Amino acid sequence: MSCLGEQLGMEFSPEEIAAARAAGGLLSLELELSRACNLRCIYCYASSGQPLEGELSLDEIVDVVAQAEGLGVKKIIVLGGGEPLVYPQLFEVIEAIRGRGLAADLFTNGLLLTPEVAGRLFTLGIGVVLKMNSRLAEVQDHLAGRSGTLAAIERALAALKEAGYPGPEHTLGVETIICRQNYQELPELWRWARRQKIMPYVEAMTSQGRATEHPELAVSEEEIRTLFEELARIDREEFGCSWRPHPPLVASQCARHEYSCTVTATGEVHPCPGVSVAVGNIRNRPLAEILATSPVIAELRNIRETIKGRCRHCALLDHCYGCRGHAFQVTGDYLAEDPLCWLKGVDVQR
Q1: What residues contact 90, with CB distance under 8 A and at least 6 apart?
Q2: Backbone angles phi, psi at 109, to 5 degrees
Q3: Cβ distance 316 to 246 under 8 Å?
């Protein structure tokens, strides 16, 4: 079984990434539709809930998709910003993406994912990632800020399975943030996902948005290390998968800054959701021009040469540069060493 190749964020080859970087192009685009959301997750990076003033129109969103295609994008990741299934024209956006021959992943909390919606997503060939932080109702509901969310997620999973997920052309994942409240159950949640052939997308939490209001969510660096190492052991011994533990993603890596960016619900272009630095707005300039002229994008495109601190000397730098979002939110510098990484170039020297 090849676990690494199945993980989100690793669908592009090093050769494809190098070519996109050299051409100033993109391979993927993270797209926010609206900040409207039917939950109030206490860790939400965007503090989602109500729509923002001046959000993009459908025509503007479709135009962003067209611009992205022109830059070489192969996949659009629909984050929603809030909850994408709340967005009334979601399927018009998805059809515009698929109509251009682009792949798409949809991140959703699942509350509105009915059998009919699951069937439409399956027909359109959309990858689905459910936001699920616990299989214990009291924990899941607390983190989501609303009762009944675990039951809704379970209904969504049942609907997706009935529609035909997961399959070779229909990926199904669960996104889980690591926090104090779910820490102890994550090894079993990992096993559950693996056995269900669901991609477990487990990541360290960035200190932004509502998470900054909830210090009780925090997990120490040593606890993060212990968890990553335990999940690596489980994968190796129980599922035949081998990988080197390092943040920010379990069994995976983040290389998005070399080939991706985020367009927010108001048209701002950010390097990623964690590096919440506006480098331009698609209402003022074309996406290609924004990417080509931004010093921030240039530094992150060349992160392996520009990264600072002990990360710069780590033996894993060729395929890992930590979490730029966490570095930025903690230090104010998106090039700083990842404060959450336990390696820090000490136990693995280049």
Answers
A1: 33, 78, 84
A2: -80, -10
A3: yes
The phi-psi region of residue 128 (left if phi > 0; otherwise alpha if psi is between -120 and 50; otherwise beta) is beta
Cα 328 from Cα 316, distance rounded (Å): 20
Burial class (CB in 10 A: 0-12, 13-18, 19+), 261: buried
Q: Residue 79: how many CB atoms within 10 A of its CB?
A: 25
- Position 9 scores a pLDDT of 47
Largest CA distance in the chain: 53
Pairwise CA distance, residues 281 & 269, whole Å: 6
Cβ contact 78:105 at 8 Å? yes
Reply yes or no on whether the pLDDT at 118 is more than 80. yes
Q: Average model confidence (pLDDT) for the chain?
A: 94
**Within 10 A of 142 (CB to CB), how many other CB atoms are there?**
18
Q: Are 275 and 324 spatial neighbours (Cβ–Cβ below 8 Å)?
A: yes
Count of residues for the chain?
A: 350
The percentage of residues in the chain with a pLDDT greater than 90, rounded to a whole number, is 89
Distances in whole angstroms, Cα of residue 129 to Cα of each of 4, 153, 236, 270: 17, 11, 24, 22
160 has a pLDDT exceeding 50: yes
CA distances from 268 to 58, 145, 168, 259, 272 (A): 15, 28, 34, 17, 11
Phi, psi of 51 (to 5 degrees): -60, 150
Distance CA 308, CA 344 (A): 11
Contact 68, 261 (CB under 8 A): no
How far apart, in whole angstroms, are the C-alpha atoms of residue 301 and residue 295? 10
Residues 277 and 194: their CA atoms lie apart, in Å, by 35
Q: How far is CA 102 from CA 95, 165, 211, 247, in A?
A: 10, 19, 33, 29
Percentage of the chain beyond pLDDT 70 is: 95
Nearest to 47 by CA among 207, 181, 204: 207
Instruction: Note the pTM of the prediction, 2 decimals.
Output: 0.94
Cα 295 to Cα 240: distance, rounded to the nearest angstrom? 43
Are 340 and 323 spatial neighbours (Cβ–Cβ below 8 Å)? yes
